[in-house]
Amino acid sequence: MTITTGTSVFNPFSTLQSISQSMATVTQNQQMANIAQDLQNQLNRQLAAIQPTTDQVSIDISQNRIKALQSQQKTISGLETQFGNNGSILSDMANQLNLMTQAVGKSDNTAFDNALSALNTDYTILTPPAWNAIFQSDGMAQFKMAGSINIQSSATYDLSTQTGQDAATADITNVSNLVQSILKINGANQTVAASQLTALNGQISSLQNIQFQQQTASQQAVQQQTNQLTQNMQNTLHLIQLNLGQSSQMATALSAALNPPQPVNSVFGALTNAIGQTAAGAEKQLGQMPAVMSLFA
Fold it and tell me: Are 210 and 124 in contact (CB under 8 A)?
């Protein structure tokens, strides 16, 4: 049945049905929103309670060990660099001493003094390494403590004489022997430093790999629990959605069975059936015009 007002057509049955369906949908959606929020809150509490499976004490001990090895690695690396630098300087000193020996044989004062100047420059920049139990003492510290090289200028020796040449040669030989001794031990220490660094790198890498595997296993376990709890929550929510839908359908069917539609004798009777209450009943209960008639008031 429809009612025409001007150019518009009003269908009261469709309007009431639409209102009823909209209210039911809003109510059900709100229920689902509340339930979903409760389930999410519960999931958040469960996720916060998940404890990593890794033994944190073991990880802390391992991390402290790694830091100690890295500190040692840094020290050895610095010494290896210093051994290398000193090795280059000592080699140049040995070369300058050879040039001085040649200059003595030729009575070449200029070549002798030039080599002596370069030798003194090398001596100045030579740096004794810090003491470390891993390495041999090379005698460089004592060499530097002397303050200068025990070789005089060519004029002091008078290389034009045999006596002067012999004196210069003796001093050159003493310094050369000391330089060669330091150079040999310095080279050995550099080799030891390289071996120590290789060993330290291996230990650090091994500990880091073990630590990474432990942390990865822990993260995977936590992720598996998280995924399982999340899936359980989603399954629960889906079941509730299905149950709410079935309950709504059952309630609608039960209401229709218990309240069959009354015969329609007028537009007011039809509207009354649409909202589930007879016009006569409404009049008895309210003592006034049925509610549906307010639509046309």
Answer: no
Is CATH 1.20.1330.10 the right assignment for the domain spanning 59-214? yes
Task: Judge residue 247's burial from the number of C-beta atoms within 10 Å of its C-beta, 0-12 exposed, 13-18 middle, 19 or more buried.
Answer: exposed
Sorted by sequence, the CB contacts under 8 Å of residue 39 that are 6+ apart come out as 233, 236, 237
Domain ranges of the chain: 59-214
**pLDDT tens-place string over residues 73-114:** 999 999 999 999 999 999 999 999 999 999 999 999 999 999
User: Up-side HSE of residue 147: CA atoms within 13 Å toward CB?
Assistant: 0
The total of other beta-carbon atoms located within 10 Å of residue 193's CB is 24
Q: Are 90 and 184 in contact (CB under 8 A)?
A: no
Tokens of 201: 């790198």
- Residues 74-94 as b or e (16 or more Cβ within 10 Å = b): ebbeebbebbebbbebbeebb
User: What letter represents residue 114's amino acid?
Assistant: N
Which pTM value belongs to this model?
0.58
Backbone conformation region of residue 50, classed left if phi is above 0, alpha if psi is from -120 to 50, else beta: beta
Q: Are 52 and 221 in contact (CB under 8 A)?
A: yes
Q: What does the DSSP assignment read for 229-248?
A: HHHHHHHHHHHHHHHHHHHH
Structure tokens given for 134: 């891993």
